[in-house]
Design brief:
Layout: H1 2-17, H2 23-28, E1 30-31, E2 41-44, H3 46-52, H4 56-67, E3 73-79, E4 82-87, H5 89-102, E5 114-118, H6 130-148, E6 152-156, H7 164-176, H8 186-203, H9 206-219, H10 223-228
Parallel strand pairs: 5-6
Antiparallel strand pairs: 1-2, 2-4, 3-4
Helix pairs in contact: 1-4, 7-8, 7-9
Length: 229
């Protein structure tokens, strides 16, 4: 994106002020403001002022007028000697997707690696939520992009039903569950005891130590702990 902006600014400077800069010279003066109220990108016009023999503020105002007309930008504001540049995200997204869809890769450019992508791998003691949907979308998108470039992709979903988080639910069930049978969806049932554990641990930190000890027993193959699991 920064390279595209540099290219547009370079051409407009040449058209308006009849002075030439390389694209890299312009590129180096484009910054990304920490505060987004000042735009997605900012450009200092001092570099143009020297060659164009005009005030950097005047240059900023003239460039803002013409750059605002470009589809790439939502708006361009002149603030003293700087341009605050706001990207038109719809236009930018369309351009990027069109370039991807219209690109033709040569055999030399294609990859041929085996790539493993693990997603979304939710915990079995917590219900799925919108955050997991995001991870599913990211994982599947990465997989398809890598496949498009010639890679062999292995999708892996870890059944995350072991570890300290499970021991916390188990410990709370052991202390408070009274051998109760599940009366609701299983991830909700187990999740309730995870919440109970956190309440207990806030009041007494020794519960965290007990959970760690239970995990060690689980890893050592303790038959009672494995049966509870």
């Amino acid at each position: 994106m920064k390279q595209t902006i540099a290219n547009i600014i370079q051409k407009k400077i040449q058209e308006i002020f009849n002075v030439e800069f390389s694209e890299n010279e312009i590129f180096e003066k484009i910054e990304m403001p920490d505060n987004k109220q000042f735009g997605d990108f900012a450009f200092s016009c001092f570099i143009v002022s020297k060659k164009a023999k005009a005030s950097p503020t005047v240059i900023a105002n003239k460039l803002a007028e013409v750059l605002t007309l470009e589809n790439t930008f939502e708006k361009v504001e002149a603030v003293n000697a700087y341009l605050n540049i706001f990207i038109n995200r719809l236009s930018f997204t369309k351009d990027v997707l069109n370039k991807i869809l219209n690109s033709k890769q040569t055999n030399e450019q294609r990859q041929s690696k085996t790539v493993l992508i693990e997603f979304p791998s939710p915990n079995t003691n917590k219900p799925l939520h919108l955050g997991h949907v995001r991870n599913m979308a990211i994982g599947e998108s990465l997989a398809r992009i890598l496949e498009l470039t010639g890679n062999k992709v292995i999708r892996l979903n870890l059944i995350n039903d072991r570890g300290i988080h499970i021991c916390k639910s188990m410990l709370a069930y052991q202390k408070l569950g009274e051998n109760k049978e599940p009366d609701k969806k299983l991830d909700h049932f187990v999740g309730d005891y995870y919440v109970m554990f956190n309440k207990l641990a806030k009041e007494d930190d020794s519960y965290n130590k007990e959970a760690q000890e239970m995990l060690v027993k689980w890893e050592q193959g303790d038959t009672d702990i494995r049966a509870l699991w």
